[in-house]
Amino acid sequence: MHSHEVLKRAAETVGVKALAAQLRLSPALIYKWCQEWDPNDPDIGGARNPLDRLADVVRMTGDRDVVNWLCHEAGGFFVSNPSELATDMSTELLVNTQRLVKEFSQLLLTVTKSIEDDGMIEPHEADRIRNAWELFKATVEAFTVACERGAYRTK
Asked: CA 24, CA 49: separation in Å to the nearest integer?
């Protein structure tokens, strides 16, 4: 889906005029954001929208904190697609299933170690739990992508 289509669908949930009023922008600008935009085609009436600009920031800087922040604002977390990990993943189902179990065990061990010393999870311990969780999610995603690519099909 293109960015202008995403914005159009989002704007339709509350109405362009209401969205423009909340953002203190003109409805015309919101409508332009919701149309296709191509800098090389003057006949296309859209305008470069905030989603395109954020994507440019991420591409230019290579820093995904913008995406992480936006996901956090939406009540979630960003997990990147593990395309390089998924292509390197062994086609041995048992080996990769064991990898999932190992990463999950590591996550549980991190939680256990965090609370066993004083019965509380301190901020630095929460950071370690977050890192273990992110590694586990990446491992599960890589496994899932490998499944989707047919890595474990019988011949």
From this structure: 15
Residue 108 shares a structural domain with residue 49: no
Range of the domain at 22: 3-73
d(CA 125, CA 147): 33
13 lies in the same domain as 55: yes
Tokens of 78: 């960003």
Q: What is the mean pLDDT of residues 71-98?
A: 72
DSSP-derived 3-state class of residue 32? helix
Better pLDDT: 106 or 23: 23
Q: Is residue 56, in this structure, part of any structural domain at all?
A: yes
Residue scoring higher pLDDT (141 or 155): 141
Q: Do 95 and 143 sit in the same domain of this protein?
A: yes
φ, ψ at 25 (rounded to 5°): -125, 165
